[in-house]
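Table 4 source record.
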Amino acid sequence: MIAEITHTCSPRYGIKKVFNPYFRIRILFFICFCLPTSSFVAAQTFNVDSMILWVNAHPRNDSAKIHIMHRISYMLSETDTKKSFEYYERVSILSDSLHFTYGKALASINLGILLSSAGNYESSTKAFFNAIDLAEACSAYRVKAVALNNIGENFASLRDFDKCRNYATQAIDINGSVKAWRGVAINYELLHRCDLEQGLYDQARLNLDKGMPFAIEANENYILSQFYLGYGKLNAIYHQKDSADFYFNKAMTTARQTGDLRNEYQVYLAEAKYLSYIPVHDKIVLLGKAMQLANQTQFAEGRVKAAEQLSSVYDLLNRKDSSMFYYRIYRSVADSLFSENNRRNTIVNESEWMIKRKELENSNLKQLTAAQKKQIASKDILLFSVGIGFLLTLLVAFLLYKSIQGKKIKDESEYKQKIAETEMQALRAQMNPHFFFNSLNSIENFIMQNEKKLASDYLNKFARFIRSILDSSSNELIELNKDIESLQLYIDLEQLRFNSKFSFCCDVDPMLTHGEYYVPSLLVQPFLENAIIHGIGPSDREDLKISLRVRLHLSMIHYIIEDNGIGREQSRAYNELNKPFHKSVGMKITQDRINIFNQDSSTSNCVKIIDLYDEERKPVGTRIEFAIKLVSYANDQSHIG
């Protein structure tokens, strides 16, 4: 069994990630990933010892320490379960004290693996479900995929192969979306084992063939050994002796290169079970080695399978005492591991978790709707509170300046204050009360016209858009892909409100979609809103459209927003006639945000607004261009289990 664990340890924060500048951590990762294969077993021991030394010497209780202790817990899970559990507890306690949700998710993963090895599938599955909830809370999709795969492993052990396939398939979808090829390989290997156990040999080989390219891409002996073992079993089933021997030997060699005791156990067990031509006494030797490894790694399910085969082999030799001895071992462990009660409780845990999630989703939707209505009704109170908070912040900044009496601290304080002020104005500009009012009116109109599906779709998108605004308001930066998703939600709402009057095209540089880039949240939204309200809205054309292009060039992210509306000159005339008292501040606020993000205090215009004309010099729209710089973050991100 491959107990999958996260190989990339933390959510992606950086535009260009810079590893934690601790020299000993760099040495540690050189040992883990850069040593030749022939020396990996020795390096692995040194790796654990080095990590323990680093943890003991590391003075700070931070995310780097959590990541390393998590890695230690996982690496000891098959050789020293007591010590592995000790480090799991340290990860859990420290993550709780730091309110580090990602660390809590990792701790739940390790707990689930330890409980699964001990045969406590009910508690193990509960731990993995908890890991899913925590992973979703911090957008750690890779961790969620790991938990799903390991739930599938538990159901496979309980011989509920349909549920196992369901969870493994979900994990494949997530791993594929984040390009976690190691995880994809592990998921296909699990599907192959389900097929093999049910005698679906053609389907088993198909899943092995699908997963093998990803296993080769991952280039990890632990995974390759499992795939070689799978091919060995299938060749043995079809009585292809030479091929079976070749793959079994290859599986054993790769397992021993990295000291994977569980994989060695699997090879011994498979050779005894599937190689029908070997003498019975040789099978006893193989099964004895398998039993020894199962005991050594405290692998409860492994002891059951080895004992069951040993009982059968001794029965063939008519050695009743030995057969009965191993049969008692088999029954004593199997009755607790694979009992109907254990299987039922695991399924009950799954059902309770799903019901809880559904209730939580409904509750969140109701709370969000109520919060939106309350927010609109209490706008004045909110603005007053914000004003008081802003004045208090100014007072604190002034007192800090007076106490320190340093020009450098003064400049930093003023600069941070300017960021806070601009971001506050930007949030208020984004959460335009007219937009809320119009959106709620649109929902009401759909309901009045009995357009229930349109009303539901609109409300769903409206709630998701508001949720994205609220989530991003507490963070200085968000992922570029999430920012594009929020913009698309805003465009969808406006298209519904304007009866699909215009089309929208978003073209993002592939380098940006495949990289790890962060940007200020909803920086583009005011420009899109300006294009819709002042360019598209008053126009009578039928082919109205807005385009957004995002490009990476010379360490800058370039944005180009273009519309074919009425143009700025006609828009000014239209507003003077229809909205004489309207005053827009969104463009000024956004320009300030761009200057602050680029750390440019210049008052020069960083946003280019270009009027578009046709060959007859008639206005045909407007183009807006601006750029923001890339920022590198020195995060303490490390590779873990």
